[in-house]
Amino acid sequence: MTPNQTFFKSMTAQEYRQQAPDLLRSTAQPVYDREISPWQATTSRNAAALREQQRQREQERREQKQRQSREVQVVLEALGMQKEDATAAPAPTVTADELLRDVPEVKSAAPIAPETTQPVPSPVPQEPELTTQAESGLSPEDAPWRLAGEVLNTYVIVEQGDKIVLIDKHAAHERMNFDKMKEKGYTPMRQVLLAPVVVKPDPAESEILLRSLDLLRSFGFEAEDFGGGDILVREVPDYVEGDEADRVLSEIAGQLLENGGADPASARDGVLHTMACKAAIKGGWKNDPAELEVVARAVMSGQVKYCPHGRPVAIELTRQQLEKQFGRRN
Fold first, then answer.
1. Which one of 1, 21, 207, 219 is least enclosed by Cβ atoms within 10 Å?
2. What is the mean pLDDT of residues 68-93?
3. Virtual torsion, Cα 193, 197, 201, 204, nearest 10 deg
4. 325 phi/psi in degrees, rounded to 5
């Protein structure tokens, strides 16, 4: 017989009925399970935290509903739409027929005949001859123009109205330099050579150059007699390289010899042609669009029409001439 059985057997019925609930609880589970384990404590805390979160959410929902109710009430009060006004009689509705009942009848007016205009006869197009920019004389004031580009690294394309202007950039820039150098008080930009250059021209060229040192100085050359017919060059214009001094001075000497019996003004013009050509941009060079625009502006304004040698600097090609070439016009 176990100790529990001996214990229960020694109890009376009255004692058993009084102590039965406590005894049953004490014997229902082992002694080591009567205390809460760590896992049970953690689960209980999590459950309590979840219940607290749910309670807070419910509280927030109730507060939000109360705020919305108050906001709606404020709006209704501002609009004068209180609950007591909701029981007022609705405003009578008016139909479209009742609104139009008192409108006087308007007699329909006679239809207005559409305005007719006499067609204006279009002018008969005439085939223009190929003209130069100098002959047309159009400028930006006559029609706006834009720089369209360059072809063959030589000819600048300008679009103006219904025509295209092709500009020889070298010829136009040469004329710009010629006019600038010919102005009174022109001061050229010079560059001092790190090592002076000794030029050995022919005797005739040496003689004419040594007699024209002042003229050479006005174009940016600083030269002196080096003896034996040689010329020592210390400075050159900014557009002439040091190794080009011999060739440029030879060309200047040829211009001076060609105008040997002419007056100094004519001799100066001869040198001007050579120096303006040397300072101009060359055909085949790749130039910046800003440089091309400067040349185009001088031509389109009418400032430049012919190069110093008398050749035109620009020609025009009209829309009609282009369409005729493509077979779009007879």
1. 1
2. 62
3. 60
4. -65, -35
In 169-228 the beta strands, taken as DSSP E runs, fall at 190-199, 222-227
Specify which residues 163 forms β-bridges with: 160, 318
pLDDT at residue 3, rounded to an integer: 53
Looking at the whole model, is its pTM more than 0.85? Answer: no
Task: Give the whole-angstrom CA distance, residue 282 versus residue 155.
Answer: 11
In angstroms, the CA 29 to CA 25 distance is 7
Of all residues in the chain, the percent with pLDDT exceeding 90 is 31
Q: Report the alpha-carbon distance of residue 188 to residue 190 in Å, rounded.
A: 6
Give the residue ranges of DSSP H helices in 183-288.
Answer: 203-211, 213-218, 245-258, 264-279
More confident residue, 274 or 260: 274
* CA separation for the pair 240, 249 (Å, rounded): 11
Tokens 């007591």 belong to 84
Asked whether the CA dihedral 37, 39, 41, 43 is positive or negative, the reply is negative
Distance CA 272, CA 258 (A): 14
